[in-house]
Specification:
alpha/beta; seven-stranded mixed β-sheet
């Protein structure tokens, strides 16, 4: 159970294979609330990790996007930060227990997930920086107004997110073949007999040990 996720990668509305992976995960662990939170969700349809569940499977939830030009109903125009993420969840009445959280802000992903308190999604999908080697635990330093400049300077390494996941009681179960999405399942939801694989076997995206940045901006070791 959950050992065959690569074979289930399918895209119905997601950027790459996330749709099929999520369907398989919830086939294995079951869906309880059928509620999700996703940010940045863009327009909620194109390259969205929750669009297939919402449009085709009857799920509901909260969509947030910081770029006003991308926002379409039912997406809320909110720029999510580590300081406001919990208050935004409260504002939109997110339940403390829900099925799926998807984080893709091209920058402060690590810090925002770290800041979430009092909310316990069963599954987390989060984008990671594919340029780091498997043993490197680093992220960008936190800056609330960070905006990605389309360079390798963004986000956090998969190892850093795996470490944070363990601190928050989550296990890394998969990383997509064709997109930098990592999938975590809460420890208490893992199927009986699940065996965690080494991080080197989970991702094929090890492009270098550490990305070079022309502006010489710093990384933070986790």
């Amino acid at each position: 159970m959950l050992s065959d996720l690569r074979a289930h990668e399918r895209s119905f509305r997601s950027q790459c294979g996330a749709d099929g992976v999520l369907l398989r995960i919830f086939e294995c662990i079951g869906a309880s609330t059928r509620y999700f939170v996703e940010f940045g969700a863009k327009d909620g349809c194109i390259e969205s990790n929750t669009a297939h569940l919402r449009i085709d499977r009857g799920w509901s939830g909260l969509l947030m996007e910081g770029d006003a030009e991308r926002v379409r109903h039912p997406v809320q125009n909110e720029f999510v930060t580590a300081e406001n993420v919990n208050s935004l969840f409260a504002k939109y009445r997110v339940p403390s227990e829900f099925d799926l959280l998807s984080i893709d802000v091209d920058g402060n992903d690590y810090w925002i997930w770290k800041a979430i308190d009092g909310y316990h999604p069963r599954v987390v999908v989060i984008e990671y920086n594919i340029f780091f080697g498997p043993s490197v635990c680093k992220t960008i330093p936190y800056s609330a107004d960070f905006h990605w400049d389309k360079t390798p300077y963004h986000g956090a390494s998969l190892a850093a997110l795996q470490k944070l996941g363990r601190e928050k009681d989550y296990t890394l179960v998969h990383a997509e073949s064709y997109a930098p999405n990592a999938f975590f399942v809460r420890h208490s939801e893992l199927p009986e007999g699940f065996v965690e694989r080494p991080i080197e076997e989970i991702s094929d995206w090890w492009l270098c040990e550490e990305p070079e940045d022309e502006l010489k901006r710093p990384w933070v070791s986790i």
